[in-house]
Automatic annotation (TrEMBL):
<dbReference type="Pfam" id="PF23169">
    <property type="entry name" value="HalD"/>
</dbReference>
<protein>
    <recommendedName>
        <fullName>Fe2OG dioxygenase domain-containing protein</fullName>
    </recommendedName>
</protein>
<dbReference type="InterPro" id="IPR056470">
    <property type="entry name" value="BesD/HalB-like"/>
</dbReference>
<keyword id="KW-0560">Oxidoreductase</keyword>
<feature type="domain" description="Fe2OG dioxygenase">
    <location>
        <begin position="148"/>
        <end position="261"/>
    </location>
</feature>
<keyword id="KW-0479">Metal-binding</keyword>
<dbReference type="InterPro" id="IPR005123">
    <property type="entry name" value="Oxoglu/Fe-dep_dioxygenase_dom"/>
</dbReference>
<comment type="similarity">
    <text>Belongs to the iron/ascorbate-dependent oxidoreductase family.</text>
</comment>
<keyword id="KW-0408">Iron</keyword>
């Protein structure tokens, strides 16, 4: 088969959006449909009120089953971390006072199935490539235009967490993340976040330190179920995953969106999260989307 014919065959075997998303209940391919308009209004209201929105059973169970099978097949190729990190994924800076959040490190163990090894017929990849999904996320956020992320490793990975693993408080390198839980922990493994804890203009260091030291004031908890779609502003809302309890592995799909189609992770963050930095991470290091600590 020629390369072009192979590409066509691969595209043909990719699941269509209607095989992935429950379009009967959530017809996001029809933006003018009253059901979709009501859904977008609901998501916007939730994002305004609590900094996050959740659409229950957005992804069909058959698609979740295929994603789980894909993640289990790819798990041996995951990049595993057993480390500690500060919220900015930077190295320690002993020149700063001890209560500066750049100096406060928490435990993180997880594996990332990086975006560049997803399979040709991946439901996650197909959903991420869908313009309907991009438009829907943009409308829910009330931000346009947004783009798929240029980061070759971090743009739509799976995160894998085994019993005992936890994921430290941090901010993301990209502005917006969609989470689709593929398989939850038996217990624990909850997503905790602090809505809009910082803004592009204000790091709000005091509040960040307080949360790292145990303040629960701004913390909200979301108990995602498999198939639920969550949209949150990970660059501004500090978040973590609580320890995985019980015997089951937690798998979550994490498609990401950004304001600047050119930006990618800093090399240091790419290495800490995804195990390596590529030439693109160094080439674009100077072109950060904002002036945040990262
Ligand atoms: O596993 C989750 O729910 C969130 C993971 C996360 O925050 C990240 O990969 O940056
Ligand atoms: Fe994150």
């Amino acid at each position: 088969m020629t390369q072009a014919a192979q590409a066509l065959a691969d595209a043909a075997s990719r699941p269509a959006l209607e095989a992935i998303v429950d379009l009967d209940r959530y017809p996001i391919h029809q933006p003018e449909n009253p059901l979709t308009m009501a859904l977008v209004a609901q998501c916007r209201a939730e994002l305004d009120a609590v900094g996050c929105c959740c659409v229950r059973n957005f992804v069909r169970p058959e698609a979740i089953a295929r994603m789980l099978a894909e993640a289990e097949r790819l798990k041996p190729q995951a990049f595993w971390s057993e480390t500690t990190n500060n919220p900015y994924m930077t190295k320690d800076d002993p020149s700063l006072p001890e209560d500066h959040p750049k100096r406060i490190f928490n435990k993180r163990n997880n594996g990332f199935i990086n975006s560049d090894i997803l399979e040709e017929t991946s439901d996650l990849q197909a959903a991420y490539d869908s313009d309907e999904m991009l438009r829907f996320v943009s409308e829910c956020l009330g931000v346009a235009p947004i783009y798929r992320w240029a980061d070759p490793l971090g743009r739509n990975p799976y995160s894998v967490m085994e019993p005992g693993h936890e994921f430290a408080w941090h901010f993301d390198g990209n502005e917006f993340t969609v989470s689709i839980l593929v398989q939850g922990a038996e217990k624990g493994g909850l997503f905790e976040y602090c809505p809009d804890l910082r803004t592009p203009e204000d790091e709000n260091l005091e509040a960040v330190t307080k949360v790292l030291r145990g303040d629960r004031g701004p913390v909200r908890v979301l108990d995602l179920q498999p198939g639920d779609l969550q949209i949150f502003k990970g660059r501004f809302s500090m978040h973590r995953v609580t320890p995985i309890e019980g015997n089951r592995t937690r798998y979550i799909a994490l498609p990401t969106y950004v304001l600047d189609p050119h930006s990618v992770n800093r090399p240091e963050r790419a290495k800490q999260f995804y195990g390596r930095a590529e030439p693109i991470h160094y080439e674009r290091e100077a072109q950060r989307p904002d002036r945040l600590l990262d």
